[in-house]
Amino acid sequence: MKRKHIATWLLAIALTGCSKDFLTVVPETALSSATFFKTEADFQQAVNGAYQPLRQIFNERAWVLEEMHSDNTYYARNTLYGAVDPTENVADFAVPTANGVTANDNVLVQYRLNYVIISRANQILSLIDGAGIAFASEASKNNLKGQALFLRAFCYFDLVRLFGKVPLHLVPITGREDAALPLATTDAIYAQIEKDALAASTALPNKATQEAGRATSGAAKTLLANLYITQKKWAQAETILKAVVANDGYALMPDYNDAFSFTSTNKNNKESIFEIQYMEGSAGYNGNQIYRFLPSPISATEIAPIVGTSNPQPTSQESNNIPTPDLIAAYEAGDKRKDISIGTITLSGSLRANKTYPYIKKYARPHSLNQNTGQNWPVYRYAEVLLFLAESLNEQGKTGEAAPYINQVRARAGLAATTASAQADMREAVFKERRVELAFENKRWFDLTRTGRVKEIIGAYGAKVKANPAAYYFPAGAVPPPNAFTVLDDYYGLPAVEAALTPNF
């Protein structure tokens, strides 16, 4: 009977022939772009799906590539855990790179997840204007379109700052041939980010009327300002940042600790411009960053006060994102942010002579379930807008106008007004203020690259690590690998796995 059905099916194909219409028929029961995008709710669901990879990016990889790859954090070597891994290579500035590509898996995953979001945004943008469906309103349609534009711009901004040149996909891929595009120039990628962010800034509603957690006009403008600052387009950055300050309703939370969400409260607060949404529980929307960051081996008794769970579990792992002595020393006396951002813990099972370690306290929010957290990850906060504005004004020679913006940030931290009055002094003051205000928010690496200070700062930092490994959390007899701090490039190599799929890398 089965053979008869197969034969009949093959005969039907033969009789029908290979017409174009036959080959492009999509089964009505299959979920595809041809059958799915029929209602506004479908586009809403697609936009929701475009945000989804951000949770993995910020839970697993962004902090490796953009924070541990700096002088802010390092790893705590646990010789009981095993050999050096790809994350340590990033922290050690020793990512194996040849002919512009690397096999490092952190690089690969970050690259691919960004393109997952881009591909989903492209699908939405390619169909939404010609969908032929009735949206609740033009504003509703623009909101969905604006979110897709923002997400595409956001991901290309991450990619261009990590790699310099990447393929610029702006329409859905239909076949193997258009999947392997040439590398676009940095300037071409910047131009597309600007175009998308500008369009998003006018299409999106502001925070007061947008659903919590979604991109807003303020988020798009802040992304655009970040782009202009990276390009050193100071006047354009000033204009857009002043619009955010004047019109978008943000404000500093009075207490620095309250700028960051708890596992189920204080999310998307008045200081938050854009943050990655997590939810504790079994639905699959949770994070577990703090468990990745804690020094180890840590006992259940030692971890309990940090995580607050009813069933604390010990861990024995390679510990990452440990605050460096350099960062700890960067806080001024009396800075309230230090004790909010960084805690200390003594590990009875540590192989170090000094068993005391710092850890990232501002993400250590009490929660119920082991390895299951719900606090959101801050991407853009109003404090950064103020520091961006101070920097943009100062770089135009308006140092006096810059001071009030940096001083707002300092005042909340319990610090006196900056004493910087000359342009060079203010430049350094803003650079240092960004380091402590935005510590552990994946900003430091990009601050080093855009200011051209990688070799200067990381070179000196690496020399200290190699000269005194014990101060950087190595147990007795353990040292950084011989190739540590030898790859001081502004960009990562492109993923080797992707290079094998294209002639253009």
Q: What's the pLDDT, averaged over the residues? A: 92
Q: Count of DSSP E strands?
A: 9
CATH topology of the domain at 39-203 and 458-471 and 488-504: Serine Threonine Protein Phosphatase 5, Tetratricopeptide repeat
Shape field: globular
Strand order of the largest sheet: 2-3-9
Terminal CA distance reads 52 Å
Helix content: 40-55%
Which value, in Å, is the CA radius of gyration?
Answer: 25 Å
Number of separate helices: 22
Under CATH at level 1, the class of the domain at 39-203 and 458-471 and 488-504 stands as Mainly Alpha
Structural class by SSE content? mainly alpha
Are there runs of 5+ residues with pLDDT below 50, and where? 1-30
- How does CATH name the architecture of the domain at 39-203 and 458-471 and 488-504? Alpha Horseshoe
| Largest sheet geometry | 3 strands, mixed
Q: Strand percentage, roughly?
A: 5-15%
Family: Belongs to the SusD family.
Subcellular location: Cell outer membrane
Domain RagB/SusD: 340-475
Pfam family, one: SusD-like_3
